[in-house]
Write a structure and sequence with these properties.
Blueprint: H1 3-16, H2 26-35, E1 42-43, E2 47-51, E3 59-61, E4 67-70, E5 85-88, E6 93-96, E7 98-101, E8 120-127, E9 133-139, E10 145-153, E11 158-167, E12 178-185, E13 191-198, H3 203-212, E14 219-223, E15 227-230, E16 239-244, E17 250-255, E18 260-265, E19 271-276, E20 279-286, E21 289-295, H4 299-305, E22 317-323, E23 329-335, E24 343-349, E25 352-357, E26 362-367
Parallel strand pairs: 7-11
Antiparallel strand pairs: 1-2, 2-26, 3-4, 4-5, 5-6, 8-9, 9-10, 10-11, 12-13, 13-14, 14-15, 16-17, 17-18, 18-19, 20-21, 21-22, 22-23, 24-25, 25-26
C-alpha cells in the first residue's frame, strides 16, 4: 500500500464518521502511518525495486538487522552533494539519515567539519573494542576525506553522531592526492581505504589507464598514531571495494579496471588468492562468505551506455558468493533486467540480496530462491 494512499484513506475515515472520542490520538496516527508498507515502484521476474533514491552506491546493515544505511554517490570526477539514506526493511520507508555534529574524538585532530554537506561513496560499520558501533564513509566534498561516526539507536530508527574525520594526504610534493572509494574499519578505530586514483590525474588519462590495465592506486591504512600509510602488496588497477576479515589480519580488495578480487595478507603483503570476473565493485562479508558485485561490460560500454545526465543505468552485472579461504565460487548470479542494473553492492539479508547502484534512483531486492541463469 502506498503511504500516500494510506494517509488519504485515514483522513477520509476520520472526516466521515465517528465522534471526537472515537478519533485516534496523534500518537496512534503516527504509529499507523509508520506501519504502512511502501510497495515497490517496479517488479519483474527477478527484482522488486524501490525508487526515490539518488545513487545509493553502498549499503550496510544496522546492528539490529532491521535497517539499511545507504550512501549517496555524488559522481566522479566532479562530485556533487548528496544525502545518505536509512531504509526500514519491514516497511521500506526511506528517510535521510539524521546526522549530529559533535566533538572530533575519533579522527585526525587537524580534520575539521562545520557543515552537514557530504558527497558519500563507500561505507562500513563495525563494533569497536569499547563496544560502540562505528561508521566510516569515504567522502568527496567539501574535501576528500574519510568521515567517522558513532551509530546510535533512536526511539524508532538510528542516527549518526559525527566523531571526526581524516583528510586524504597530499603527497609527492603536491603531485598526488588519493581519491578514496571504499573503507574497512578495524576494532581499534583505524581503517583501510582504497585509492581508486590520483585526484590530480586528468580523467581522460584515467580512462586510458583503465583500458590499458595500468595500476592507478593502492590501499591506505590510517591510524591516530601514524596517519596514512600504504599497504604492501595492494597496488592495482582502480582499487574499489574492500573488507577486512573478523581476525583483522586479511583484506579482500576489488580492482574495478582489472575485474580482480584479491585476498591480501596484511602483515606480509602477500596475495593469497585471486578471483577474476566482471569489473569488481563493492564487497560484503556475510554468512561466512565474501559477496562481490561485478559489472559485465567494458569501460566504453559504460561511458556510452550510461551518460552522466541519465537517471538510471541498466547495464548487466553479476554477484559472486566467494569462499573466504581461497575465493572459489560458491554461487554465481548474473542479472540483466530492464528495471535495475549496474548493481554496485550485494547485501544478503536472510534469503534475500539487496542491491544499490552508483547510477540510479533505486535499490532492488532479489530472492535467492529465484532461478536465474549463471551463464554456464
Amino acid at each position: 500500500m502506498k503511504i500516500s494512499f494510506f494517509i488519504l484513506a485515514m483522513a477520509t475515515f476520520l472526516g466521515g464518521c465517528g465522534t471526537d472520542s472515537d478519533k485516534p490520538s496523534s500518537g496512534e496516527l503516527e504509529k499507523a502511518v509508520k506501519s504502512a508498507v511502501i510497495e515497490p515502484c517496479a517488479a519483474d521476474e527477478t527484482f522488486s525495486v524501490w525508487c526515490g533514491f539518488k545513487n545509493p552506491e553502498d549499503l550496510a546493515l544496522t546492528p539490529d538487522s532491521e535497517f539499511l544505511l545507504a550512501t549517496g554517490f555524488g559522481g566522479i570526477p566532479q562530485s556533487t552533494l548528496n544525502e545518505m539514506s536509512i531504509i526500514e526493511l519491514s516497511t521500506m520507508q526511506r528517510n535521510p539519515v539524521e546526522i549530529v555534529l559533535a566533538e572530533n574524538t575519533w579522527g585526525d585532530s587537524g580534520c575539521k567539519r562545520s557543515t552537514l554537506d557530504f558527497s558519500t561513496h563507500g561505507l562500513d560499520v563495525n563494533q569497536r573494542v569499547d563496544g560502540k558501533h562505528m561508521v566510516a564513509v569515504t567522502n568527496h566534498l567539501p574535501k576528500e576525506t574519510v568521515e567517522l561516526f558513532e551509530l546510535l539507536p533512536t526511539e524508532s530508527s538510528w542516527q549518526l553522531v559525527w566523531r571526526g574525520c581524516a583528510e586524504s594526504p597530499v603527497i609527492e610534493s603536491g603531485a598526488r592526492q588519493p581519491m578514496f572509494n571504499d573503507v574497512a574499519l578495524n576494532a581499534v578505530g583505524g581503517f583501510y581505504a582504497t585509492e581508486m586514483y590520483n585526484i590530480t590525474m586528468p580523467f581522460d588519462e584515467l580512462l586510458a589507464a583503465g583500458a590499458a590495465g595500468e595500476d592507478t592506486g593502492v590501499v591506505w591504512y590510517w591510524s591516530t598514531d601514524n596517519g596514512f600509510q600504504p599497504v604492501a602488496g595492494s597496488k592495482g588497477s582502480f582499487p574499489n571495494g574492500i573488507l577486512i576479515n573478523d581476525a583483522e589480519d586479511t583484506l579482500y580488495v576489488n580492482y574495478w579496471f582489472s575485474g580482480e578480487t584479491t585476498k591480501l595478507d596484511i602483515a606480509s603483503g602477500e596475495v593469497l588468492a585471486t578471483h577474476r570476473g566482471g569489473r569488481a565493485d563493492n564487497l560484503t562479508l556475510a554468512d561466512g562468505s565474501v559477496w562481490a558485485a561485478k559489472h559485465d561490460m567494458t569501460i566504453m560500454e559504460y561511458v556510452e551506455g550510461c551518460p552522466a545526465d541519465s537517471v538510471n543505468c541498466f547495464l548487466p552485472f553479476s554477484v559472486y558468493e566467494l569462499d573466504l579461504k581461497d575465493l572459489s565460487e560458491k554461487n554465481v548470479w548474473r542479472f540483466d533486467s530492464a528495471i535495475f542494473g549496474f548493481g554496485t553492492v550485494a547485501m544478503p539479508v536472510g534469503k534475500s540480496i539487496w542491491f544499490g547502484s552508483a547510477h540510479g534512483d533505486r535499490i532492488a531486492r532479489f530472492d535467492m530462491n529465484t532461478e536465474v541463469s549463471d551463464g554456464t
